[in-house]
Amino acid sequence: xxxxxxxxxxxxxxxxxxYFVKIGNQSISERGRxxxxxxxxxxxxxxxxxxxxxxxxxxxxxEKVYFFFGDERNVPQDHKDSNYLMAKKALFEPLMISPxxxxxxxxxxxxxxxxxxxxxxxxxxxxxxxxxxxxxLLGLGDNSHTASLFPHTPVLHDTTPGVKEVWLEDQQxxxxxxxxxxxxxxxxxxxxxxxxxxxxxVHHILEDExxxxxxxxxxxxxxxGETAWFxxxxxxxxxxxxxEEE
Length: 246
Prior knowledge:
The protein has a single domain (2-232), classed as Rossmann fold (3-Layer(aba) Sandwich). 31% of the residues lie in helices and 19% in strands. A six-stranded parallel beta sheet has the order 1-9-8-5-2-3, with helices on one face. It has a three-stranded antiparallel beta sheet with strand order 4-7-6. It has helices at 9-31, 42-51, 83-95, 111-126, 180-184, 199-207; strands spanning 2-6, 34-38, 65-69, 71-73, 135-138, 163-168, 173-178, 188-193, 226-232. The model has no long low-confidence stretch (mean pLDDT 96). α1 (9-31) packs across α2. The protein is of the alpha/beta class.
């Protein structure tokens, strides 16, 4: 695990944008393309806006970047809560990304079918190659969930890579998510977490005894690659040990 702690949220975002570009250029150099699974939420939105800004727009060959989603809410793509819509406005439209490079969850289907079709879309894209994203971006919820791997949901016990539908009883909503085995097959995984409200969850994931039912993000650790955490000081406040980035 690579733990990176910065003074401010802005420094965290800049560091992760640099990391995104670095991994992207490395992937394009080695394999001719960069495959990335995006995260939803307010924190990633700021990252996408930064990547689309004049500071970063010219640092990557965006025509060779292929976008997927780590999870999606079961809402229409033009709904305000859609992760796709957020990424479209913050990243795809400003960079004029071709629709052929964007692989969104088709939420016009029932949740189980939408999940199955998304897994089919992913496997078709990778064709005969191993299904392994170059980078998976993740956030962390106050309840220690990541992507849509929520506490006490059946998807936490998946042992083979795939995409699953997840019912959230407390919210009475469905979500579609990459499962932990699929995320862990990625070459690089990056958590973006900042703010004092995340400090307890960060401690649970990084320093508490394993309890995936309560702390699902403990499931995430790249099998053959790197798992990197990008935190600000408030989010890292409850950690007993911090390893500053060199």
